[in-house]
Amino acid sequence: MQLHVIEQGPERSSGKLPVVFLHGLFGRARNFGALQRRVAADRRTLALDLRNHGGSPHGMMTYDLMAEDVRETLAARDALPALVIGHSMGGKTAMRLALAHPETVAGLLVADIAPTPRPFSQDGLVAALRGVRFPARLDLREAKALLAEAIPDAAVRELMAQNLRLGDDPGWAIGLEEIAASLPTLYDWPERSAARYDGPTLFVRGGRSDYVRDDDLPAIRRFFPAARIETIPEAGHWVHVEAPERFAALMLDFIADVADEDRAGTP
């Protein structure tokens, strides 16, 4: 499946590795806008809408399917190998890509998710979204008022407002039914006991999040033996949003380190 892509930066950045961003559940490519712009100053960047999100096609979801979507899309754009950054569901997709096709991933940065089964606690949100009844026409102001009845949390409401189709015949632009049917698979982790990715890997977790626990560290080490783990104490699950400067500093340092390793390995 070819995915919708937001591309920024030089088309060919003097041989530098491209950087790819993969969003979490109910997110979209433009959620990484500020971080993407920082990297795109001197490097090609591609932010992808995963299937059922943003402008990408809809279909059933597994991490193997989504990893293949990413590989196919990047291959079609001559953007492999790449340094891949993924948050939450996008982080699991990035991990599956690295494990299944290690030659395509020059470096891996995973934001607040582990290679273990972990619910995203979204069952209630999915039920609320499915319960929204849309009028014949809807603008953004009316949409936010409509969502306020179903979604009390303002930050989640803002995120969900990005997933609406406004104007005449309003509704959800995301593949809501496909997402709902796929939730048990998205909560899971498709373990492949023999698979491992030996490339440079950074896990960044939020100190106020329980998505990457201490008892997840052995699984991280098993699948990603070169992994380094950083904790941002003041951040929750949306670590790149809640601590943007610290996350950006870790990300930029990691990109530079991977680039240095790549140059060192070039004859």
TrEMBL record:
Molecular function, one GO term: hydrolase activity
InterPro entries named among the record's database cross-references: AB_hydrolase_1, AB_hydrolase_fold, Epox_hydrolase-like
KW Hydrolase (keyword) present: yes
Pfam family, one: Abhydrolase_6
Domain AB hydrolase-1 as annotated: residue spans: 19-249
Protein's name according to its UniProt entry: Hydrolase/esterase/lipase
Keywords: Hydrolase
Domain of life: Bacteria
